[in-house]
Amino acid sequence: MNLASDGTRVRVAWLALVIALSAAVLVVLRVTRALDIFCDWTSPCLGLLVATLPTYLAMLGLTLPVALIAGAVHHFVTSREAKVSALISGILASATAVLMAVAAYDAMWANYASTAQLDAPRFTPVLPPIILATTSVLWPVLLGASVVLTNLELANLRLSRPLVGLGLLPGFALVASLTFGHEQVTARYVAFGLVMAWAGAVALQLRPVGRSSRSAAPSLSR
């Protein structure tokens, strides 16, 4: 079995660290209720748009590196079809996250950017509300699928088998969060916590050590 190069391990380690930090940001924002901002339209509410920016940046930071990991590993344990599926699901999850952020900001701008008067007419969103509703459902499914499929490929990076097995849990948890009804938001953040633990463990096991890793680190910019 061909094993991936040290340079690939370093790239994956850095990408996994980005995933872990992004998941941590989402969890911290949820736990601290940093987004619980009240707006009664008696004053401009544009602060809400700024306050939610870290959330959508973290969502993209959680999603895009998964697709990059799938593309970075050139030697695969599973089939070529699995590699292509991991890459496509990661790309689709990233595109869905971007579209969801655009639709959310479009809706927030329509609701909160109007003049601070209760009887003032609201702006009309450019995008139909169905886009935000649909992407909010699709994103955790696509992200969960990409995490599961990409994690299976990481066995070729000399990760421990328990860690590869652990990586299946957050992917399935993201997909399963949709079945929790009114509690699906809480379930989703539990899944984010699992992603944080898994990605952090991957980054720790693949962390750069020794001279070869230091020389491989600049290849991240290429």
Could you explain how this protein is built, in words?
- This protein has 222 residues and is mainly α.
- It has one domain.
- It has nine helices and no strands.
- Helix 1 packs antiparallel against helix 8.
Element layout with pairings:
Elements: H1 6-31, H2 47-51, H3 53-72, H4 80-112, H5 129-153, H6 161-166, H7 168-176, H8 184-205, H9 210-216
Helix pairs in contact: 1-3, 1-8, 3-4, 3-5, 4-5, 5-7, 7-8
Q: Approximately what portion of the residues adopt beta-strand conformation?
A: under 5%
Number of domains: 1
> Nearest-angstrom radius of gyration?
20 Å
Total of DSSP H or I helical runs spanning 4+ residues: 9
Catalogue the unreliable spans.
211-222
* N-to-C order of helices and strands: HHHHHHHHH
Give the N-to-C terminal Cα separation.
27 Å
Give the helix level as a range of percent: 55-70%
Structural class: mainly alpha
The number of E-state strands comes to 0
Shape: elongated
Mean pLDDT: 78
Biggest sheet statistics: none
Concise overview:
This protein is mainly α and 222 residues long. The protein has helices at 6-31, 47-51, 53-72, 80-112, 129-153, 161-166, 168-176, 184-205, 210-216. The chain is built from nine helices and no strands.
Features:
0% strand, mainly alpha, 222 residues, 9 helices
